[in-house]
Structures are given as structure tokens and as C-alpha cells.
């Protein structure tokens, strides 16, 4: 848990396809301008804004939107160490502590220095084909090897720190962070992990006559997933899938940097968030 002095250089970012977020972001910009701050506002796809963030011009990026917006913001800010303050405009907001109706209070607390910095693990994902690297990605939620649009299950083998763990026949296998444990991993039946854990979670998706339990690896462990069939794809944090060939290997380990979030109060915010979101399930009795 890190503390920061009161931030002075702020930027507001939105997802370009979220019109309600733009309206709220403008209100936040006007509020901060009234506090004496000149705060740029732009899209997370805007190259000039992205360059300025990467160049270290800002102390905090205020991301207005839902969890998808926060994922995109995390990919941008993590390598340069810029913390994110998320303002929730989405349906759930598992990654976001501040709701739409309370940002004025929370912004003032941040400007007064009444906050702390939470660090969340990212994964480094590298694809090898015939022993040669085909690309490197980073994930805040998860990396998934799955059948994609194909009907047949995939055959995949997983090893941990070079030792064989299991071979799966399944719709897929995902390697998740603690952050991702409330995303796809949760839907696949995995456990919810506290956000500060730096462990990798392995969860099979609809396994057939295979190990059907999630596995939490020791902190610092790495996992390799080897594709045994020709109908698999790789998707990292829900980005466009990459086609895989039999024999391809995906190596996954902790990234060299973390995503930083501005948080208020104690770590209990996470459990309060979880309870609130689970109670939004329309099948839950009132």
C-alpha cells in the first residue's frame, strides 16, 4: 500500500464509444477547472493523449466509464506507473470504487491527499511457434486459450515452472490474475481472490473428462500452455483472438510492472463492491 502526495497534474480519459461517459467527464473537467486545475480531456484512443501519458506528464489518469474502459486505461498507464482513478459509468464496475454520484467527494479527498495506491498484478503473455516468439501481450484480467468460434473442444497441456500439471480437453483454459478472478474466471467457476494477491489462477472452461478444478499457483510461479489441436485461439483481456497451431506454446508469468489504482478508505472496499455486484444478479432473491 503506497501513499502519494496530492496530485497536481491530472488528465481525464474516456472510451470513445461511451457517449454518457463524455458528458460526465466534461462535468468532472468543469469541476476541476473550478478548483484551479487545467485538466485535458480525451479518448483513450487519442494518440496525442496516449503519448503525453507515456511521457509522464500526469500524476493521475481519471478514467470515466466501465470495466472495459479501466482495462484499456490500465494497459496504457501501467508501463509508465501512472495511477488510475476510475469513475463508474458502467453496469458493474468490479475494478472501480467510485460511483457516478460520489465523484465530487472523492476527487476532493484525492486533492487533499486522503487516498492510497493499490497495485495489481499484470501478466506477461508470450506466444512461441517452432521455438520463435510470435508476440508479447500484457493482461490485467486474463489470457485465454480456447476453441473460439470452433465447435470442437481444444486439447491443451499446462505446465507450471517447467513441470507438467495437466492435459485438458475443454472449451478453453485461462490464466488469470486476482483482478481477473471477478471476470471470465468467475463465470467459469473459479474462486474470487483478494485484489492484492500476486498469484496466477488457472481455470479450465467446460472441461470434458479432464481436471475440472481451478488451481492457484504460488506467487512468482509461471505457467506454459501447449496447444495439442489445430482449432485453438489466444485472447488476452478480450482483445481480438490470435489463431494458434498445434505445437504452439504460450508462456505466462508476472509482468515487470503493475497497474496502480487510487483507492480510498481500507481494503474492505473490494468486498463491499463484490457484495453489491452479486446482489445485482437478476436471479438473486430480494
Can you give keywords for this protein?
286 residues, disordered C terminus, Tumour Suppressor Smad4, 2 domains, Rossmann fold, elongated, alpha+beta
Description of the structure:
This protein is of the alpha+beta class and 286 residues long. It is 20% helix and 35% strand. It is built from six helices and 17 strands. Strand 3, helix 3 (67-77) and strand 4 (84-88) form a beta-alpha-beta unit. The radius of gyration is 20 Å and the shape is elongated. The protein starts with 9 loop residues before the first strand and ends in an 8-residue tail after the last helix.
Please outline the helices and strands.
Elements: E1 10-14, H1 19-34, E2 41-43, H2 47-54, E3 60-65, H3 67-77, E4 84-88, E5 98-99, H4 103-111, E6 116-129, E7 132-139, E8 142-146, E9 154-160, E10 163-170, E11 172-176, H5 184-187, E12 201-205, E13 215-216, E14 223-227, E15 233-236, E16 242-243, E17 249-263, H6 269-278
Parallel strand pairs: 1-2, 1-3, 3-4, 4-5
Antiparallel strand pairs: 6-7, 6-17, 8-11, 8-15, 9-10, 9-14, 11-12, 12-13, 14-17, 15-16
Could you give a short description of this structure?
By secondary structure, the chain is of the alpha+beta class.
Strand content: 35-45%
- Biggest sheet strand order reads 7-6-17-14-9-10
Looking at CATH, the homologous superfamily of the largest domain is: Probable inorganic polyphosphate/atp-NAD kinase, domain 2
Name the helicity range.
10-25%
Number of helices: 6
- Topology as a string of helices (H) and strands (E): EHEHEHEEHEEEEEEHEEEEEEH
According to CATH, what is the topology of the largest domain?
A: Tumour Suppressor Smad4
Instruction: Extract low-pLDDT stretches.
Output: 282-286
Largest sheet: 6 strands, antiparallel
Write down the CATH class of the largest domain. Answer: Mainly Beta
Class by alpha and beta content: alpha+beta
**Total domain count:** 2
Radius of gyration: 20 Å
Distance between the termini: 36 Å
Which term fits the overall shape? elongated
Amino acid at each position: 500500500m503506497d501513499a502519494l502526495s496530492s496530485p497536481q497534474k491530472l488528465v481525464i480519459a474516456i472510451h470513445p464509444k461511451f457517449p454518457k461517459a463524455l458528458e460526465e467527464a466534461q462535468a468532472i473537467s468543469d469541476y476541476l477547472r473550478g478548483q484551479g486545475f487545467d485538466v485535458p480531456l480525451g479518448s483513450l484512443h487519442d494518440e496525442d493523449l496516449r503519448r503525453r501519458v507515456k511521457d509522464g506528464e500526469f500524476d493521475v489518469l481519471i478514467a470515466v466509464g466501465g470495466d472495459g474502459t479501466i482495462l484499456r486505461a490500465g494497459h496504457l498507464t501501467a508501463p509508465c506507473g501512472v495511477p488510475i482513478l476510475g469513475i463508474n459509468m458502467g453496469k458493474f464496475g468490479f475494478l472501480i470504487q467510485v460511483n457516478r454520484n460520489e465523484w465530487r467527494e472523492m476527487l476532493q479527498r484525492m486533492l487533499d491527499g486522503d487516498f492510497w495506491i493499490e497495485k495489481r498484478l499484470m501478466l506477461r503473455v508470450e506466444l512461441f511457434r517452432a521455438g520463435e516468439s510470435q508476440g508479447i501481450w500484457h493482461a490485467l484480467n486474463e489470457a485465454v486459450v480456447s476453441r473460439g468460434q470452433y465447435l470442437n473442444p481444444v486439447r491443451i497441456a499446462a505446465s507450471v515452472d517447467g513441470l507438467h500439471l495437466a492435459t485438458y480437453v475443454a472449451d478453453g483454459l485461462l490464466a488469470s490474475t486476482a483482478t481477473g478472478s471477478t471476470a471470465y474466471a468467475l463465470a467459469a467457476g473459479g474462486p474470487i481472490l483478494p485484489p492484492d494477491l500476486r498469484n496466477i489462477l488457472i481455470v479450465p472452461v467446460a472441461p470434458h473428462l479432464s481436471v475440472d478444478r481451478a488451481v492457484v499457483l504460488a506467487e512468482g510461479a509461471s505457467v506454459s500452455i501447449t496447444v495439442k489441436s489445430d482449432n485453438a485461439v489466444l485472447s488476452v483481456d478480450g482483445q481480438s483472438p490470435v489463431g494458434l497451431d498445434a505445437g504452439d506454446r504460450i508462456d505466462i508469468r508476472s509482468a515487470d510492472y503493475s497497474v496502480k489504482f487510487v483507492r480510498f478508505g481500507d481494503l474492505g472496499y473490494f468486498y463491499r463492491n463484490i457484495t453489491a455486484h452479486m446482489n445485482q444478479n437478476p436471479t438473486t432473491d430480494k
